[in-house]
């Protein structure tokens, strides 16, 4: 279409119409001019509207892109909380496609524990003057919790009336989990610290030396409450044993010394000496200078006492061992010296007696060495058992025959049933135990007194008993019988004092038990061993 003609093109000069005809009425030309002006204004307005539409489309697209591709979740709900729009991030956060969010109440996606909070706040949002922020637990279809930082703003129409709610959802799950993990870790650390048997303390060197923290265990170790140390940490000096105060002074003069573990004595409030062991870690400033020390103080009194006791036992063991070796060695050396004397060579009969002494003492040495090896293997857990299934009755008869054929003067009475459950044991080691018990019974019994070897079944166990009619054992000595080198009568008992200790170790290596009973002096003794029977 061509442009509308201007008034000049219409041939209306000087108040005349076309072809010089008069105008229909006065002012007609002005009216035509106004018409053309209005048309131009309308064209300009139409162009402006078109431009505004295009700009609005661009803004709408920009908003859509920002909404759709924003890294945080965005939801638009009506005032009742029903979802009208959702971006991809919100769908991803809730692990649902957008179409399954739109049209659904947002409350459907709130975790049960936060649902009442959400429903309480939703009506209040209609009166928002500014954005509201809080945290909300949401759920995925699988039931997993997602924690979101929520910012809600009210959307109003051009009249200022609220029409919708705009929700910004920021995933803070990692943050929440990290905080929860930190809180749990702190609670666990606090629990362990407050209930630990070891005392834990934090001591600061700057700005001036002071105790920053001491766990409750400090009261158990020292007898003084933590508050006493908070008020005046130097009270610690009064608690340290006078011979150990140099250790504290050395630490204070040079904090680097704290890195070295130390064992010192403290004087408990009760007056007892408490041995403690300290392990410390230095805390340094940016320049590397020590500013504090965190340490663990452990009560090692029982350990120190045990070590001292073991040292005494070791010394006693060496003394006893030296004595046990010296006796047979003295006999051997003396007999050999007499036999080798060039001045008075022994006669054949005397030489025979000397050889007999040497042989007996050598046997005693061999027994002692063998017993020591057995004790060492038992206590170190290196004892090897060669188990086999054996006929129990035959095993006990074999022990009986071996003992009676060894030249023993005592009569042994067998009290055995015709059948007993079979045992899976090391035959040689069980024979060793029985031989020792029978020999002990013979040594403490009069020659005319019989020894009884009996056995019976009791549930899943075979009980074997050696009973004598000898001198008996005082009640207070029964618990000590199975200790190394223990002898009921140091003068009368000529053995090494290792036999019963070995018996106990061998029986327990078979998952069995051994014990002794006696009615007292002059009433004999009974030794019973219980071994698990084969099913």
Which structural class fits the helix and strand makeup?
A: alpha+beta
- The helix fraction, in percent, is 40-55%
SSE order: HEEHHEEEHEEHHHHEEEHHEHEEHEEHEE
Shape: elongated
The CATH top-level class label of the largest domain: Alpha Beta
CATH-scheme architecture of the largest domain: 2-Layer Sandwich
- Distance from N terminus to C terminus (CA atoms, Å) equals 116 Å
Q: How many structural domains are formed by the residues?
A: 5
CATH T-level topology of the largest domain: Heat Shock Protein 90
Our estimate of the beta-strand percent is 15-25%
CATH homologous superfamily grouping of the largest domain: Histidine kinase-like ATPase, C-terminal domain
Low-confidence runs (pLDDT<50, min 5 residues)? 6-13
* Helix segment tally: 13
Total beta strand runs: 17
Biggest sheet, strands in spatial order? 2-1-5-4-3
List keywords for this structure.
535 residues; Beta-Lactamase; 5 domains; five-stranded antiparallel β-sheet; 13 helices
């Amino acid at each position: 279409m061509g442009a509308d003609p201007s008034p000049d093109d219409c041939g209306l000069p000087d108040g005349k119409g076309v072809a010089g005809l008069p105008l229909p009425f006065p002012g007609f030309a002005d009216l035509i001019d106004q018409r053309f002006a209005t048309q131009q204004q309308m064209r300009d307005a139409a162009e402006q509207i078109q431009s505004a539409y295009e700009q609005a489309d661009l803004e709408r697209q920009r908003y859509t892109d920002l909404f759709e591709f924003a890294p945080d979740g965005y939801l638009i709900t009506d005032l009742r909380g029903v979802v009208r729009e959702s971006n991809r991030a919100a769908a991803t956060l809730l692990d649902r496609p957008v179409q399954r969010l739109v049209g659904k109440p947002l409350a459907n996606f709130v975790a049960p524990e936060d649902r009442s909070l959400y429903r309480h706040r939703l009506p209040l949002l209609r009166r928002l003057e500014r954005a509201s922020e809080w945290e909300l637990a949401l759920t995925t279809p699988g039931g997993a919790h997602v924690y979101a930082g929520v910012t809600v703003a009210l959307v109003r129409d051009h009249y200022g009336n609220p029409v919708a709610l705009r929700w910004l959802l920021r995933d803070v799950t990692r943050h929440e989990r990290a905080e929860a993990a930190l809180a749990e870790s702190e609670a666990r650390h606090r629990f362990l610290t407050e209930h630990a048997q070891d005392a834990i303390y934090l001591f600061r060197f700057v700005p001036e030396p002071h105790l920053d923290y001491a766990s409750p265990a400090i009261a158990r170790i020292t007898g003084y409450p933590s508050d006493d140390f908070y008020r005046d940490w130097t009270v610690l000096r009064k608690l340290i044993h006078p011979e150990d105060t140099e250790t504290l002074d050395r630490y204070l003069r040079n904090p680097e010394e704290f890195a070295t573990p130390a064992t010192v004595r403290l004087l408990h409030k009760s007056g007892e000496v408490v041995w403690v062991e300290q392990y410390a870690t230095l805390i340094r400033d940016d320049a590397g200078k020590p500013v504090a020390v965190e340490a663990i103080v452990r009560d090692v009194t029982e350990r120190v006492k045990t070590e001292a006791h073991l040292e005494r036992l070791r010394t006693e063991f060496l003394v006893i061992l030296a004595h046990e070796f010296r006796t047979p060695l003295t006999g051997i050396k003396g007999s050999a010296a007499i036999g080798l004397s060039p001045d008075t060579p022994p006669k054949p009969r005397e030489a025979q007696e000397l050889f007999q002494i040497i042989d007996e003492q050598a046997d005693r040495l061999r027994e002692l060495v063998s017993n020591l090896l057995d004790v060492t293997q038992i206590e170190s857990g290196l004892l090897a058992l060669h188990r086999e299934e054996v006929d129990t009755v035959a095993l006990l008869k074999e022990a009986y025959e071996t003992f009676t054929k060894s030249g023993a003067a005592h009569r042994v009475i067998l009290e055995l049933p015709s059948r007993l459950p079979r045992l899976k044991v090391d035959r040689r080691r069980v024979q060793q135990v029985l031989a020792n018990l029978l020999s002990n019974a013979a040594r403490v019994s009069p020659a005319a007194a019989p020894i009884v070897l009996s056995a019976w079944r009791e549930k899943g166990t075979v009980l074997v008993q050696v009973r004598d009619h000898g001198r008996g054992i005082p009640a207070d000595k029964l618990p000590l019988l199975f200790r190394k080198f223990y002898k009921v009568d140091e003068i009368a008992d000529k053995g090494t004092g290792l036999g019963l200790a070995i018996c106990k170790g061998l029986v327990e290596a078979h998952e069995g038990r051994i014990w002794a009973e006696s009615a007292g002096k002059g009433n004999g003794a009974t030794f019973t061993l219980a071994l698990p029977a084969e099913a």
